[in-house]
Amino acid sequence: MLKTVETIQSSFLQTEVPFAAIVPDSDGPFPVIYDLHGLMRGEGAYNPAPTKRTFFETATKPFKREMTIDGHAYTSIQDWVNTLGVAVVKVNGGAGWYIDSPRVAKSQYESHIIKELIPYVENAIPTLGKSAGRGISGHSMGGFGTISLLCRYPELFTVGAIHCGSLRYMPPEDHRGSFIEDLMSDEELRAAFPDNFMTALIRPNLKLRITVGQDDNKRIVRENRALHELLLKNNQAHFYQETPGGHEYAPYGWEGVAWVANELKKQTKHRR
Q1: Under a CB-based contact definition with an 8 Å cutoff, are residues 35 and 157 in contact?
Q2: What pLDDT shows up at residue 190?
Q3: How far apart are CA 70 and CA 81, in angstroms?
Q4: Segment 47-102, tens digit of pLDDT
Q5: Which of 46, 164, 214, 261 could bond 84 through an S-S bridge, CB–CB 3.0 to 4.6 Å?
Q6: Sheet harboring 72-73: ordered strands across?
Q7: CATH number, span 4-268
Q8: Are residues 199 and 175 in contact, defined by beta-carbon separation less than 8 angstroms?
Q9: How far apart (Å, rounded) are the C-alpha atoms in residues 111 and 94?
Q10: pLDDT tens digit string along 33-51?
Q11: E strands, 29-165, where?
């Protein structure tokens, strides 16, 4: 069974890709959440592999090594996942915006996730293997990917959460300076995300949580408000909140993952 850091050989990315799978210490099957990271991180390009952080317990004791994932101690994440009762997969999206680039042959992240990663994970761990037991969450660029995949694959995902989503297709002009232009031209972006793209979120079985920091970039706040207004206009049930702080992931990104976990458990409590 998958446990912590794994790698998968990707034909769509033409390389071996690491990801992290944190699985409850109990018998399954489990709901599973695919968590998508943001673009820029202090330590550089995202890699979900645990790094070793060295510190003294006391001046007289030897070094203790603690693995971390996404800046948090692996043991604490494992305890949290055990409490949630769900498997959490930290997806490696590189700088690819979770899309298939028509310009960069090695940047086909959407196909990698849908056609390689999800089947691999759900064959390797005891997941429920149905949309009712599969959720997705994301921060910043990961929010972009979360909404994109919720719209394109309604048969795969029924629960999603974003925090400080960089929703640059709302409107498409917001993509400028976002690195998306390295992957898609203006025309290609408009073709991939037409004006009616977000209406795919209007469906009765979708549970969606949207949070954004009050002090985040004005563009990002504007985009999340626009999504909120679109859902209100179409009477689509959802949770929306402007939270204290700016663009940081914690604590509201983690809260979004927990929210997805609880919604999945509600949907699947009679299906195990």
Answers
A1: no
A2: 85
A3: 14
A4: 665 544 333 333 444 444 456 666 666 678 888 999 999 999 999 998 899 999 99
A5: 261
A6: 51-56, 63-69, 72-73
A7: 3.40.50.1820
A8: no
A9: 14
A10: 999 999 865 444 456 655 4
A11: 32-36, 51-56, 63-69, 72-73, 87-91, 134-139, 159-163
How many residues are given for the chain? 272
**H-helix or E-strand spanning residue 199:** none
Strands 63-69 and 51-56: antiparallel
Task: Tell me how far apart the alpha carbons of residues 101 and 252 are, in angstroms, rounded to a whole number.
Answer: 30
What would the two tokens of residue 233 be? 């206009």
The 10s digit of each residue's pLDDT in 208-267 is 999 999 999 999 999 999 999 999 999 999 999 999 999 999 899 999 999 999 999 999
| Cα–Cα dist 242/100, whole Å | 31
Q: Do 149 and 93 touch, CB atoms closer than 8 A? A: no
**In the 3-class helix/strand/coil scheme, how is 124-158 assigned residue by residue?**
HCCECCCHHHEEEEEECHHHHHHHHHHHHCCCCCC
CB neighbours (10 Å) of residue 229? Answer: 11
Find, among 163, 272, 264, the residue nearest to 213 by Cα: 163
pLDDT tens readout for residues 154-175? 999 999 999 999 997 776 566 6
Compute CA 229 distance to the chain's CA centroid, rounded to the nearest angstrom.
22
- Kindly state the average pLDDT of the residues 16-26: 89
CB atoms within 10 A of CB 127: 21
β-strands 4-10, 134-139 pairing: unpaired
Ordered by start, the domain boundaries in the chain are 4-268
